[in-house]
Structure formats: C-alpha cells, structure tokens
C-alpha cells in the first residue's frame, strides 16, 4: 500500500517472533497511522494476536524493531496514550459501571468526562448497575467505554463487537469512526468481515506470519473479477451453467443465482434466454470473497 503523510503511531520494521517451532511473525514491516482504522485480518494462527501482543508490550520481537507512540511498547508513555479492548476482560463484578469508569479515567492526566463516555455508549441509565448484573453485550459496551475514556491516541480493539446485537454494533461502530475522524489510530482485529468492510480504511491480511495484502477494502475487492448475479427467471440451473463466463449457478428460493467472471457477457446471454427476467441484482465480490481468493492464492 502506498505510504501517506499521516504520522505513524505504530512503527514495526522487519519484526519476527517465534514460539518454539512456530514462526508466529516473519519479517513484518507495518506502519499504523493516526486518524485511520486499520483492520488486521487473517485465519487463526496467522499472527494477528502475536502482533497485537507485541504492540502492547506483552512480549518482545526476536528480531526487528517496534515502537508504539514513539516509545517502547508497554512503557508508561505508550500505555498512557493507548486504549485497549481485548476479547475478554476480568472486571470486578461488584462495581457498578460508573465506578469502573471513574477508576480507569483516574489513570489518565486528561480523561474524558465520565458522563460523556456513558452517554456515547448509551450506558447512562445503567450507570449504577453492577458489572456482574449486565448482559454480555452491555459488558462489551462498558469495556469499549473504558478503552476510550483516556482520549487515546491509539485504540487497539480485539473483536470489539463480540456478543453485541445489530443496534449496539452500529452504535459502537459510530463511536470508533468518530474517534478515528478526530485523529485516533485504530488497530482492529475481527472475524466479522462486514465489520471490517464497514469500518476499515485499510485492511492488512496476514497468513503464516507474513503480510500477504495491504490495501483499502474496495481495492481488495477489485482484485476479484467475479460478480454475483441474482434475478427472478425461469432459466434452469443447467441452462444457466452453460452461459458464457459462468462459474456456478444455483437457486435461492424463487431466484436464480449465478457467479460469473464476466457479468456483462453472462447477462447478454441470459437476456437472450429470458427477456422477461425481473428483480435483477448484480454485486461485485465481497471482502470475504476477496480474502478467500488471496489466501487460496497464497496457499497454492
């Protein structure tokens, strides 16, 4: 991916990390910029967690160099400027939301106002409820509130919307986007590819401890030529399968579904077979399609 003029918040240069016989990271060079949401994606074992742990100072590279906010990862300066939300958090169940937020806000020199943070995450009405009495989704929203209460220059999010309903997910996405637009660097790991597609300005794909792709979500999707055609038509699956550029065809309820490497060529032939087809939809590859394509290419 082309470099930009935005300041680097994380600067990794040729970082490698090994655990016994497993090479978790291999010669990774990656800069995470202020004001952008970077999604670090990849299959299990790709090296995502290893990289995040190094950024947070929970280990050191075997070789290469890594700085967080211009300082050593895990140092007081790096911790003071970072907000972190991991997949799980061991918070005291007997404390209420407000107590948790006041406690964590007290670690920072100029934190956000507790009431403002509660309002952003729609937690005001729950502020006096004990953490142990919250639902899983409410606990995740509090964990995000804690991560942002210190006005972080770097926000590290590991599966942030795990256990959230769709409305709460959209709320959290809006808060994360607002922080990035205000200059915070966001490093996001997620298995929800619609989350990465909706939020990320940049996607970094890891496989086998190496970076195999680094681009915007749209640029990655553009690498996959195939498109999905869906319509209401009397054309059979067998007939559709013989059309030009068709990779496969099937039926979804009353609709014909076709995957094509050249949608224009397929559609010209399809209209010849059925000029009265209706409810036509043509969609390009999703981010999931693009990542699957890249991982298959890497494994070949």
Would you mind describing this structure in some detail?
With 300 residues, this protein is of the alpha/beta class. It folds into 2 domains: 8-221, P-loop containing nucleotide triphosphate hydrolases (Rossmann fold), CATH 3.40.50; 225-284, Alpha-Beta Plaits (2-Layer Sandwich), CATH 3.30.70. The chain is 33% helix and 29% strand. Strands 5-6-7-3-8-9 form a 6-stranded mixed beta sheet. The protein has a 4-stranded antiparallel beta sheet with strand order 11-12-10-13. Strands 2-1-4 form a 3-stranded antiparallel beta sheet, with helices on one face. Strand 8 (202-207) and strand 9 form a beta hairpin.
In whole angstroms, how far apart are the ends?
23 Å
Domains, number: 2
CATH fold name of the largest domain: Rossmann fold
Report low-confidence residues grouped into runs of 5 or more.
Answer: none
Widest sheet: strand order? 5-6-7-3-8-9
């Amino acid at each position: 991916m082309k470099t930009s003029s935005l300041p680097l918040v994380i600067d990794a240069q040729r970082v490698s990390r090994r655990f016994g016989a497993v090479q978790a990271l291999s010669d990774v060079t990656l800069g995470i910029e202020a004001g952008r949401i970077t999604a670090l994606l990849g299959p299990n074992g790709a090296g995502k967690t290893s990289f995040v742990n190094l950024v947070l100072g929970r280990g050191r590279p075997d070789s290469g160099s890594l700085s967080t906010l211009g300082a050593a990862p895990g140092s007081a300066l790096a911790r003071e400027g970072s907000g972190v939300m991991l997949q799980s958090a061991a918070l005291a169940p007997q404390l209420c939301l407000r107590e948790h937020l006041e406690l964590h806000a007290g670690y920072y020199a100029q934190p956000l106002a507790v009431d403002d943070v509660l309002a952003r995450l729609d937690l005001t009405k729950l502020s006096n409820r004990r953490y142990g009495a919250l639902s899983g989704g409410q606990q995740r929203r509090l964990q995000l509130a804690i991560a942002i209460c210190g006005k972080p220059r770097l926000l590290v999010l590991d599966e942030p919307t795990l256990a959230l309903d769709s409305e709460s997910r959209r709320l959290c996405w809006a808060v994360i986007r607002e922080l990035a637009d205000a200059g915070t660097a966001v490093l996001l790991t997620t298995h929800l590819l619609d989350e990465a597609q909706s939020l990320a300005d940049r996607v970094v794909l890891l496989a086998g401890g190496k970076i195999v792709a680094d681009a915007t979500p749209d640029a990655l999707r553009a690498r996959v030529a195939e498109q999905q055609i869906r319509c209401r038509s009397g054309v059979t699956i067998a007939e559709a399968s013989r059309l030009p550029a068709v990779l496969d065809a099937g039926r979804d309820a009353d609709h014909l579904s076709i995957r094509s490497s050249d949608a224009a060529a397929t559609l010209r032939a399809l209209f010849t077979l059925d000029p009265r087809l209706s409810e036509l939809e043509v969609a390009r590859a999703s981010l999931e399609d693009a990542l699957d394509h890249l991982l298959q290419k890497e494994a070949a």
